Predict the 3D structure of the following.
Amino acid sequence: MSILLPLFLLFCAAIFLYDYLFRRVPNKLLLMAMAAQLGWLAASGAGLNGMAWGSAIYGFMLGLAFFLPFYVLRAMAAGDVKFFAVLGFLLGPSALLPVFLIASAIAGVHAVAVYVLRLGLAPGLQVVATRVAGWILYQRILEKRGNRIGIPFAAYLALAGAWAGMQSAGVVPGFT
């Protein structure tokens, strides 16, 4: 296992926290991850988990092409699109479909929970949400978030991407 896997997991954790808390994906993090992959590719000829140049570039283009229509239709934020393209660059094209499906399933659960909470169908969950909304730290997070609302899809892509990265490195078992 190279040093790239722990760096990748740290990158995914940072993206998760930024997007989950502030609904934002920092471009600096995306550029740093791409620079690390490019540097590793240039130095050794193989990137994260032994990926070659062609796979990295194809994964980037495929990730960008797959999510760009969602951005154009205003169904997805630009940060989600950029992050998915960077995931393609880091993990390769074969990881994109499982990452997308896993992240979509998590986002679906999130959407159902928000819907149930808004309809008041889960009184216990409503009590917890009301208490959390009163916390000072939560109020500060909402201030920083501004008017950005919605499901933190990049956060869920980061969770699924971390799993895919560990799975391709042989750290966790896959579906095969």
Notes: The chain has a mean pLDDT of 83. Residues 4-163 form one domain. The radius of gyration is 17 Å.
